[in-house]
Amino acid sequence: MTSEDQPATSAPVPTTLANRYGGQKRALSPKARRITGIAALATGIGFMAWISASLNTETVTFKDIGYSTTDATQAEIDFQVTKEPGTAVKCAVKALDSKFAVVGWKVLDIGPNPADATADGGRTTAHRAVVRTESLSVSGVVDSCWIPEANK
What we know:
By secondary structure, the chain is of the alpha+beta class. It is 21% helix and 36% strand. Strands 1-2-5 form a 3-stranded antiparallel sheet, with no helix packed on it. Strands 4-3-6 form a 3-stranded antiparallel sheet, with no helix packed on it. The termini are far apart.
């Protein structure tokens, strides 16, 4: 048999895992490990500072209790505010019509309250807002409450 009679075959290419998926990963250098550790430590310290700062901020919460419509020009909105007793806050209340359009709006100043005002040490107090309306309202709610910048 001559070389022309034999089929041409090529040598098989070795298919090792390193050829298919790449070689082993190199370990981090000591400098890279140190930088990664410092970055992780700084991130942890920053996160703890953020948590402690957010726990120390004063908060105001509110809860709608009810409403009543006396006539087409006035609504009464009852709500509770929970805050630190010595803190003054502002609350915006609104009266809504049957299509949820705002027909009355008022911002109330709620001053500091005595610590013995309620069972929870003066934190939660009840309020009634009388809001003038431009048409008949069917609902009244607290839009928001906040601590004015002058108190902070």
